[in-house]
């Protein structure tokens, strides 16, 4: 089997690289921290790629790696990674407008425990970009399985939650307030397996974003090791630094392979898709933790300053590690699969 990228996939990756290099420099990420509307021009550009949300996951992962490398803010990620796949499973009438880039959306699912599983709790947590999207899909635990309501974002009053990463803004949404607005929306039943497919796809998407951020951190550490001199030699000539960089590189390549394998199993509806999804998120989390820890050590004191851009990507990698399940949580799910098999 040939695992090399097709010409179209090379084009997707190259286009994403050029787009984020031009439209999402570190200065934009910084500006977004103070004013989220600073990312609106980037969001407008990314609307052209909304169709990736229900296309090949392997293609989406190539795009999201560059998205993560730039720590790109805005509603593009929840739209293509969560909202569009959920609408596709519902065969929702809004989907064509989402794929055409006309509207954006996010998903409100997890409860107070932070687990992305259907629940009857009225307050949904970890809702990405709830104040910057057009629609919110609210997933509850119904009597016959998951139940979904798609409501205008103006019908909810999201409460901003301060997190480690201001480039991916998270909110709490109290669904009890929606009925009072008269926009409660029609309730759609959803098969449990269908929701699992949405969450598997989203988990791999987060892992791809994290791999991109980790690659950016590794590149910054490698470049700094080449240019920072101590005792009249580059610090990259020190064996301790070389060992760190080698270990970082190995962890990164392992995570990249795991993510792309998981994407292919989902695209092919392979029976191994569930296990591969957990492996991808766990491998990406392990790689990100190693690279951010060793990367900041290689940078030394300058890496701890607000003025240096390193913290922008440290924050994204840290936050992604918790989104849709931590490394430990996914390893526990892998253990459950092994025990049950």
* Count of DSSP strands: 9
* Whole-number mean pLDDT: 92
Helix content: 40-55%
Looking at CATH, which topology of the largest domain would you report? Answer: Butyryl-CoA Dehydrogenase, subunit A, domain 2
| Cα Rg | 20 Å
Q: Give me the secondary-structure category.
A: alpha+beta
Main sheet overview: 4 strands, mixed
Q: Which characteristics define this entry?
A:
three-stranded antiparallel sheet; globular; Butyryl-CoA Dehydrogenase, subunit A, domain 3; 2 domains; 54% helix; 341 residues; Butyryl-CoA Dehydrogenase, subunit A, domain 2; 11 helices; alpha+beta
Describe this structure in words.
The protein is α+β, with helices and mostly antiparallel strands and 341 residues long. It folds into two domains: 7-190, Butyryl-CoA Dehydrogenase, subunit A, domain 2 (Beta Barrel); 193-340, Butyryl-CoA Dehydrogenase, subunit A, domain 3. The protein contains eleven helices and nine strands. The protein has helices at residues 7-23, 26-34, 40-46, 57-69, 76-90, 95-99, 192-227, 239-267, 273-299, 310-322, 327-340, and strands at 105-108, 123-128, 135-142, 145-152, 159-161, 170-174, 187-189, 229-230, 233-234. The strands form three sheets. Strands 1-3-4-7 form a four-stranded mixed β-sheet, covered by helices on one side. A three-stranded antiparallel β-sheet has the order 2-6-5, with no helix packed on it. The longest helix has 36 residues, at 192-227. The radius of gyration is 20 Å and the shape is globular. It starts with 6 loop residues before the first helix and ends with a helix. The model has no long low-confidence stretch (mean pLDDT 92).
